[in-house]
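Sequence only, no structure available. Ideas?
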Amino acid sequence: MIKDLLIIGAGATGLYTWKIANSLELSGTIIEANFEVGGQANLAYPEKLIYNLPGISAIQAKDFVQNLLQDAQVETSKINLKTAVSIIEVIAIKVETDFNFHYLVKFSDKTQKTYKSIIICEGLGEYQAVRLTENNWANVHYVVNNKENFENKKVAIFGGGDSAIDWAKTLSQTAKVTLIHRRNEFRSPIDSIKDNVEILTPYEFCEIKKAEDNLIKSITIFNGKSKKEILVDEIIVQFGATIKPHPISGLEVKRNELKKIAVDENMQTSLAGVFAAGDAIFYPTKKRNLIFGFQEAVVGLSRIDLILNNKKIANKGW
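Reply:
I predicted one. C-alpha cells follow.
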C-alpha cells in the first residue's frame, strides 16, 4: 500500500512535522538513524535550557523533546516511528497523479515502502564539534550532559551563538562563568547575562598555561594586542560544528556551497514531491531557530496536503 509521507529525521522539527501530519490525517513513516529521537537537542545538549519558545520562559531540551514525542505519538496517528533505521536507496517512479512521482524507499532494516511525498528533517547531519585543542582534556566539554557537574566552579565558555549564551545564562546561577568570544558582536542578545557573567571580547584562545592530570588549570586568551590569563575548572566550547550531510542514494537534492538544501517558498526541494525543513535547509531569510523549523514544516505539509488531497486552499489552522 502506498503511503502519503516519509519524514526523514526525528529531531525537534521532525517530531513537530509528525504532529502536524497527524492533524492532516496523512499516513506514512518517520525514521531516525539514532536509537533515540530528539536530534541535537536530546543528544548534544539535553540539560540545556531553551529560551526561544513562545509562551514558555524556559524548558530543558530533553523535556521539550519528550513533550514533542508525546504530542506526536498518539493512538490515532497513521504514521509509524522507526528508530536506528536509515535509507539505503530511493527510487523515483513516474506517475500521472500527486507530484508526478512516487518514491520507493529501501531501508536498512531490509523493508521497503512507496511514498507519495517526502519531507527531509535531517537537521545538521553528522555532527562533529569544532575543537579547542586536539587533545582530549577531561575538563573540556563540547556537549553538556549534566549541568550539576559545573556547580560552584570557574567555568570558561567559548562562543558567540545561542548555545554559548544559553549555557552562560544557565550555569551562572550556580557557577562563576566567563564568556569568551572572538568578536564584540554576538549572534544573540546578551542583556540577560551581563550582570552575572564576565564577558571578554574580542578574545580568542591562545594557549594552555597550566595543566595537570589531564585537567586544564589555566588558559591564555589574546585580543590582538595583549594576553590575559584565565583560571578554569571547566571549559565549554561552543564553536559550532563541521557538518556532513547524510547521503541518500537516489535522493540527490540541490544543495548550496555549505551543503544546505535549497528550497522554494513551499519548502520544496529540487525534486518534485520532496520537501525539507529545519536546520538542513537554506533560503535567503532563513534563521537557525526552532520556530523557523516548525513554520517550515507547516508550510511544506500544507503544500503536500493541497496536492495529495486536491484541495483549493490550505487547512485554516490547527
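The radius of gyration is 22 Å.
Hope that gets you unstuck.
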